[in-house]
Amino acid sequence: MTSEIKSNTVPKQDEAWHALKTEEVLQHLKVEEQGLTTGEAARRQATYGPNQLQEAPRPGFLYTLWEQVNSFVVWLLIIASVVSALLGDYIEAAAILAIVVLNAALGIIQERRAEEALAALKKLTAPEAQVLRDGHRVSVPGRELVPGDMVFLEAGNYIPADVRLLEAVNLRVEEASLTGESLPVQKSAASVLDKNVPLGDRKNTAFMGTLVSYGRGRGVVVSTGMRTQLGLIAEMLQRVEEEETPLQRRLDQLGRTLSIGSLALVAIVFIVALINYTEIGQLFSGPLTYLREYAKEITEVFIIAVSLAIAAVPEGLPAVVTISLAIGMREMVRRHALIRKLASVETLGSATVICSDKTGTLTQNEMTVTRLWADGQFVEVTGAGYAPQGDFKVGGKIADIADYPGALTALWLGALNNDAQLETTGAADQGQTFRVVGDPTEGALLVAAAKAGQMYQEINAAYPRENEIPFDSERKRMITVHDIIEPRPEDISPFYDNKLKDWDVIVVKGAPDVVLTLCTRYQTIEDESKPLNEKTRQRILAANDAMTADALRVLGLAYRVEKDVPDRELTPTEVEKNLVFVGLIGMIDPPRMEVAPALEKARQAGIRTVMITGDYPNTARAIAQSIGLMKRRKGVLTGAELDKLD
Hints:
By secondary structure, the chain is of the alpha+beta class. The chain folds into four domains: 17-51 and 145-236, Calcium-transporting ATPase, cytoplasmic transduction domain A; 61-121 and 244-318, no CATH class; 368-588, Calcium-transporting ATPase, cytoplasmic domain N (3-Layer(aba) Sandwich), CATH 3.40.1110.10; 598-644, no CATH class. Helix content is 41%, strand content 21%. It contains 23 helices and 22 strands. Strands 9, 10, 11, 12, 15, 16, 17, 18, 19, 20 and 21 form an eleven-stranded mixed β-sheet that branches. Strands 1, 2, 3, 4, 5, 6 and 7 form a seven-stranded antiparallel β-sheet that branches. Strand 13 (421-425) and strand 14 form a beta hairpin. The chain is elongated and about 125 Å long. The chain starts with 21 loop residues before the first helix and ends with a helix.
């Protein structure tokens, strides 16, 4: 049974929720563990409004038309058209007016098309949310969420609102869209943080628009719509005042110059003509007599002067500018970039500094294994992204990974101790696309193993998982236990011996320094096990340091074969002992192939590029150097250093 919460007050959305215990959060939000009732949800919906980002009202037709004609040059053309009509030159007047109308229509059509395309994209991305209403789990549109709603989070879900976590089971969230951090963030419901903790370190909170990459969780909605962190960013962007583009300023200046020049031309021609065709001296002795006597000549002179002024106005200039910008907009659309306003095309062309996010912009946002290390031997891995295509190189030459069984075993273990999946769409002969479901780091391990011919589906079928100790951010490792069902000679692994059938293999994956402390032996490059001495430990740590210096994220792999591992819930002390260290796997979010040439073109055009990222300085420096963005060792500015600048 659930109970309707009677209250004349509504919960605030601007509390420091990450600094409160879960019980305090529920109390502040006036919600019970069973969730809201339908009636209470409706009441809060009426109070808070829909859970969606508000936009500035779409401008009406008249406003859009005004924007197209509100230019000094266009007004000059309109005045010229009116004057031509008054002087009886209707063809000239109609021609000028037609140019003005065509120019406005072209601008309106282009901007409306962009607005409609953006609206269609928003409809495609409307999220659904799993919530607890009246004690039952139901699916509701994301826009109907209210503060106090209990939501369920699973791998692949986008977070529909800002949520204070109540439960987190191996929950990792990709927050690249909000913080720029390329790696998933481990979440914890139990932690209570300081009020001033930065956004990226709020482990007990999940934010609207971010993606659950691994695990599951449950939480309570604390902020919706424009009060979410994403909404605050959107509101800040909406407050930015529009300024005239350089081209608009130059056109207005041209219009003013032409106006002044035209008036001066009219005055000069008029005065000179009067002097030539009339007795100008009579104007000062008898103005009325002068006007009556020379009315015809004065009218003709005025028409000539005005005609010359109209001829000086460039009727085709606005149309030429609009058509040029429209062509630029079409070219941007062809390159998958939507631009709402035509003038923005010229603004982009006037840019002298580009501040770019790293993750997903300069990089592919697809973690990729690029280097292996086993028993003193580095093996380079080519290929980028999630396509299982690439070679293995030793000493710069392509090598058969089967000749280095120690390195292959590391890949094999990485695919075994893994919760991700690699999905394929499309036919092989028509260009397949690959997508990782789960943690991008684990997805990178699957792809690297597939490049070596070790498909995780086959590995898991031969060595199914029967127990595990999930990854923990404090322990920095994950343990899986597998039953050796069908050891196969073609498996390049330590477990192909038929004598090991029905034994168990314990696989540990985690931070290299942590995994190394659990090991007493190590796997040689020839696939033999030897005692682990201090010299070998230091060699492993040195290899790890060398890989991290190149901005690689490094994982250590180890294993142990056991006759019988208990089926019950395991404790770390039972399995984390006498392990065999196998090797290191280094990965990185690789730069996009087209980035380096694009940066060079920008540099040649006089455009300075700045990379913005949440990575550590060494990682940022390595990425910048790999794409040619930074030619020297200096040039990294941290957030703390930036705050100190004037």
